[in-house]
Specification:
The complex is a heterodimer of chains A (85) and B (140).
Chain A (H helix, E strand, L loop, with lengths): L3 E7 L6 E6 H7 L1 H17 L4 H13 L5 E6 L2 E7 L1
Antiparallel strand pairs in A: 1-2, 1-4, 3-4
Chain B lengths: L2 H11 L5 H14 L17 E10 L2 E10 H11 L4 H13 L11 H9 L5 E6 L2 E7 L1
Antiparallel strand pairs in B: 1-2, 1-4, 3-4
Helix pairs in contact in B: 1-2, 3-5
Chain lengths: 85, 140
C-alpha cells in the first residue's frame, strides 16, 4: 500500500516546491468523501451488473500496486516529479 | 563507497543533476559492475518489476524529458479491473474506435491474453531514435 506521495515542482522563476503527502493521514481526513465515493461506486456496480466485491477487490489491488510509480516530466527549466512510495 | 558513486552524489549535491538522473546513473553503474565472482555460475536474471518509458525530445528549442516508471503489478491489477468492464461498454468503445479510424475490436481482447502480454513484457525493449526525439520503453 502506498505510504507517501512526493511531489516536486521546479519553475524557471522561484525556488522548487517540494511536497511530501502521507497517504494514510490524508485518507483519514478524506474518509467522508471516500465513503461517499464508495457508495456511488456501489450504486454504479449494481446498475451495470458488476460484482460489487470483485470491483472493490480490483480497486484495492490497483491502489495497493501504485507503490513505486514515478512520473517525471521536464520541459526546459520547468519540471514536475511525482513519486509514490 | 566507490569513487564513481561518490562523484554522482557530489554532482547531485551541487545541483548539477536531478535526483532522478542520479538514480539512473547509479543504476547504470551497478549494471556495469560484475555481480558474481569469476568462475562462479551466473545468477538467474531478476524478474522485472517496473515498466519504464523514457522520452527525450527537443521542443521549441528547449529540451523536454518524460520519465515514467510504472510497477508491472499495477498493470496486472489494471487488467483484472478492466475485466469487469461490461460487454456493452466494450462494444460501444469498439464502435467509437472504428469511427475514429482504429479498426480494433476490444471485445476480442481477453484478460488472459493481456496477462500473458504483461508476463512477457520484461523481454521487450522498444527504442525509437529520431533526430529530435528519442523514446525508450523497457522493463527493469
Amino acid at each position: 500500500m502506498p505510504q507517501l506521495v512526493t511531489v516536486r515542482v521546479e519553475r524557471p522563476a522561484g525556488r522548487p516546491v517540494r511536497l511530501w503527502v502521507p497517504v494514510l493521514p490524508i485518507a483519514l481526513v478524506l474518509l467522508p468523501v471516500l465513503v461517499l465515493a464508495a457508495g456511488l461506486a456501489l450504486v454504479a456496480a449494481v446498475v451495470y451488473r458488476v460484482n460489487v466485491l470483485t470491483a472493490l477487490a480490483g480497486g484495492w489491488r490497483v491502489f495497493s500496486a501504485l507503490r513505486g510509480t514515478q512520473i517525471d516530466v521536464a520541459h526546459g527549466r520547468t519540471a514536475v516529479l511525482v513519486a509514490i512510495r | 563507497m566507490n569513487e564513481q558513486r561518490k562523484d554522482i552524489l557530489d554532482l547531485l549535491a551541487e545541483g548539477k543533476i536531478t535526483a532522478v538522473e542520479a538514480e539512473q546513473l547509479i543504476a547504470a553503474l551497478e549494471r556495469g559492475q560484475p555481480t558474481a565472482a569469476p568462475g562462479a555460475e551466473p545468477r538467474p536474471k531478476a524478474k522485472a518489476k517496473y515498466l519504464r518509458v523514457q522520452v527525450d525530445a527537443v521542443e521549441g528549442g528547449e529540451q523536454a524529458r518524460v520519465n515514467v516508471r510504472v510497477p508491472l503489478q499495477l498493470l496486472r491489477a489494471g487488467v483484472k479491473l478492466a475485466a469487469l468492464i461490461p460487454p456493452q461498454a466494450l462494444s460501444q468503445a469498439t464502435v467509437e474506435l472504428n469511427k475514429s479510424g482504429v479498426p480494433f475490436d476490444l471485445t476480442q481482447l481477453k484478460p488472459e491474453q493481456l496477462e500473458e502480454l504483461i508476463e512477457h513484457l520484461d523481454e521487450v525493449t522498444v527504442e525509437v531514435d529520431q533526430p529530435d526525439a528519442k523514446v525508450r520503453v523497457f522493463c527493469e
